[in-house]
Amino acid sequence: MSQSDELGRCLETAVSAARAAGAVLRERFRTPIAVEVKAQHDFVTAVDRESEAVVVGRIRERHPDHAIVAEEGSPAVRSGGPRWIVDPLDGTTNFVHGIPTFSISIGFADARGVAVGVIYDPMHDELFEAVRGRGARLDGRPIAASHERDLHRAVIATGFPFREFAKLDGYVAALRALMTATAGIRRAGSAAIDLAYAACGRYDGFFEVGLAPWDLAAGALIVAEAGGRVSDCAGGQEWLSRGDIIASGAAVYAPILEIVKPRLG
After folding, report:
1. d(C-alpha 55, C-alpha 136), whole Å
2. Is the entire prediction scored with pTM above 0.85?
């Protein structure tokens, strides 16, 4: 099978798995569920695990030799080679509180990096997807990142660093500077949705620190394939390992980086 065919097959798997998991989340939304505390400000529910079981089951059925890295700890099939990076419920706190803003994020990576990304918002039935080198789509239609050139007219999304308190002072300084330099700041509570919205131009940019690979993998690819710019907060390409990111329309990337880098780079 050619690489092109293989990536197409992986996209089909990711879309199928995301929609199936989304059905679970819709069915369980605003129903009584037990909540466990993994760490400060970090929660997990039985629904996270049910969603993950659906996604992992679909992947293993079609790609039994691929490794899987998933937030709730599904063991990898093997440590190297092709791997899936899965967040079965990005926005658990929103879900627990009955806020209809959460998503499923599924990325597939090969030796060259992230090659397939799918983000599904089940409450709005919106599916964002990208394959490396083939552009990005929302519900099958091509999308493009923002073309805004003036940072003062830009709307920037972010998420609070609830795990990375050591970076809190730098984050607050960057947030303050961006609040005074832009048209507004938004915080959805799901990094995957923030990235998807940056990819389709609803947001002009997004930055955050203290993220995990499953928060970033799919969304960063979708932004890049939509013509946006993606980097870590130092301006490099180590966002997946560092856990911090700037993702924006190409024209406002440089002024965002100029503000963020001295404080968080």
Report:
1. 21
2. yes
